[in-house]
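Project outcomes to date are best conveyed with an example. Our students and postdoctoral researchers have been running inverse folding experiments weekly, and each run begins with a structure described purely in tokens. The record below, which covers 224 residues, was selected by the lab manager from last quarter's runs and is presented without edits.
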């Protein structure tokens, strides 16, 4: 199922519970949580206490994206706090196979993330294990960046591999996603579209999620 996944990094943290409630009312089933350590990426965001607080106010799946240098240390802490799924960067995971298995052993879905300059080919020996692959369509670290079109080629390649090898991992995209490129992203083969600024910086975030979801559903009905 194609899903629009609101990213709370762009929400109003003074009214986070209210923003989450709006996403629920709009039909979202998942929330994206960007975790940055100020080292792997230049920005610094949030930690397990925020995830724990989110878990208290919503039953939506919490999709935690770790942009950090030590995912093995922190992934268990976020899962304990309430994360349903955790994605780690290929570029940061020294022992990726072990890290993905660790996340799964703790009861969460395990994802792997690729930066814009990292090719899909590096995942050849781990795609059978990953629950999902997150393609960065901006360089990670800051919200509001411009979409990098080559991300679509990477999604197409992943979707091709998935079909050829009969694998079940989901494909997710993060960065510069908006109503203007939703259909194109979906037609490339993407399942989960993370949207931050496009949703929470709009006049009506709930309506924006519904509109993007509608566009995504229309795109799946168009053969290419």
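After processing, the design step wrote out the following sequence:
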């Amino acid at each position: 199922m194609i899903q629009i996944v609101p990213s709370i990094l762009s929400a109003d943290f003074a009214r986070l519970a209210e923003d989450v409630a709006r996403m629920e009312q709009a039909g979202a089933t998942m929330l994206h949580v960007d975790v940055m350590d100020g080292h792997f990426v230049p920005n610094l965001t949030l930690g397990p206490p925020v995830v724990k607080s989110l878990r208290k106010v919503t039953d939506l799946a919490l999709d935690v994206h770790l942009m950090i240098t030590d995912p093995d240390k922190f992934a268990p802490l976020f899962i304990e706090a309430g994360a349903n799924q955790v994605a780690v960067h290929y570029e940061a995971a020294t022992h990726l196979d072990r890290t993905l298995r660790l996340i799964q052993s703790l009861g969460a879905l395990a994802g792997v993330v690729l930066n814009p300059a990292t090719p899909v080919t590096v995942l050849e020996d781990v795609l059978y294990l990953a629950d999902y692959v997150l393609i960065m369509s901006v360089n990670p670290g800051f919200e509001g960046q411009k979409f990098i079109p080559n991300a679509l080629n990477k999604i197409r390649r992943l979707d091709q591999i998935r079909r050829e090898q009969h694998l079940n991992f989901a494909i997710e995209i993060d960065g510069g996603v908006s109503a203007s490129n939703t259909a194109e992203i979906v037609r490339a083969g993407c399942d989960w579209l993370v949207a931050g600024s496009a949703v929470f910086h709009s006049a009506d975030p709930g309506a924006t999620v519904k509109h993007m979801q509608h566009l995504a559903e229309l795109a799946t009905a168009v053969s290419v």
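Residues 32 and 46 are 12 Å apart (CA to CA). The first helix runs from residue 16 to 25. The training component of this project remains on track.
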